[in-house]
Amino acid sequence: KIKMSEFFIELFSEEIPAKLQVNARKNLYENFKNFFAENGVSVKGRFEVYSTPNRLVLHIDKIANVIVKKAEEIRGPNLKAPKTALEGFIRSNNIKKSQIFKKKTEKGDFYFFKRASKKIKTIDLIKENIPFILDKISWNKSMKWNNYDLFWGRPLKSILSLFDGKKLEFNFHHLVSSNLTFIDKDLEDQTKVFDGFKSYNSYFKSKGVTIDHEKRKSIILKELLKLSKKKNLKIFLNEKLLEEIVNMVEKPKIFICEFNKKYLEIPKEILIITMQNHQKYFPTFDKKENIINNFFVVSDNKDQKGLIKLGNEKVIEARLNDAEFFWKRNK
User: Fold this and answer.
1) Distance separating alpha carbons of residues 142 and 154, to the nearest angstrom
2) Euclidean distance between CA atoms 224 and 209, whole angstroms
3) Measured distance CA(269)–CA(236) in Å, rounded
4) Which residues of the chain have pLDDT under 70?
5) Which of 119, 121, 237, 329 minimizes the number of CB atoms within 10 Å of its CB?
6) Ramachandran region of residue 109, left (φ > 0), alpha (ψ -120 to 50) or beta?
7) Cα–Cα distance between 248 and 212 in angstroms, integer?
């Protein structure tokens, strides 16, 4: 019976913009999926890709330890082909002339040899190919920095790579993978060693970081609906905005803020565009669906001193002041 192992990789970089993150997740998943399918690697259980602004993560909880390549007959050149063709076939397959036999097929008479069945360690296969798989990620916009030849969405700082709980070491451009990662995106002298996805995920959860973007989405959604209900407000969820915010934060906190009621004289459409498109805020409405002077902010930090709330209220004041000026001038 073939043993199943866990394969887990984290690519830690500077903050990757929301759209690039979505594309990178899709690419990473498809590149590995295709590679495993092409090489007959059996993958069972969970096969997931997650991201935070700084971390791109791939986790497979059950991957076969070995690949069994079945015995097969490999067709060589036609019997009528020049001698050099047969010599090339023998050389490229690293076999002896005595292993060659002739066989009649529908397409004519050919030389063949029988390749014996063999076992390949999955870890060796991944190790050898992972740099090419990662290089296949296509970024709509990428960066090159220092004298490195690596193009990535934003500067790549480290690679955590584990197979069966142990370090899977490989070179990717100027980086060498290890079993540790930066635990604080702002303090790069703090690192921690991990032996699997479970401990990694629990550790970040204890720090308030949600690695799974889908879980972050449901946390934000739940909190927005809870606060709206509590304050007797109505919100219309803009899916595109929600998706963007999910990829901008790793430990979402939601605050309710307000702006001066005088700005409610500006047309509703201008208020919504200013809040949603420019500031990534969620506008709020009363039961009759009239816009009101409250809005929700999704932040990446707790607001113990109320400074985030205050800062966002100052920003919206300036934005709406400009909007009012242009609206009155162009009336």
Assistant:
1) 7
2) 18
3) 13
4) 331
5) 329
6) beta
7) 13
**pLDDT at position 185:** 81
Q: How far apart are CA 143 and CA 150, in angstroms?
A: 8
Counting DSSP H helices and E strands in the chain, the numbers are 8, 17
Measured CA distances, 165 to 36, 63, 197 (Å) = 20, 13, 9
At residue 16, the pLDDT reads 95
Q: How far apart are CA 172 and CA 152, in angstroms?
A: 12
Q: Pseudo-torsion of CA 37, 42, 46, 47, nearest 10°?
A: -30
In the numeric block, which tokens belong to residue 257? 């803020």
For residue 153, the model assigns a pLDDT of 93
Beta bridge partners of 162: 8, 167
Name beta bridge partners: 100. Answer: 113
Strands 4-13 vs 156-163: parallel, antiparallel or unpaired: antiparallel
Instruction: Determine what percent of the chain falls in helix, strand and coil, rounding each to the nearest 5.
Output: 35, 30, 30
CA of residue 310 relative to chain centroid, distance: 33
Indicate yes or no: pTM above 0.70: yes
- DSSP label at 117? P
pLDDT at 221: 95
Residue 26 corresponds to which tokens in the numbers above? 């899709």
Q: What angle do CA 107, 108, 112 make, to 5 degrees?
A: 100
In the prediction, which pLDDT does 259 show? 94
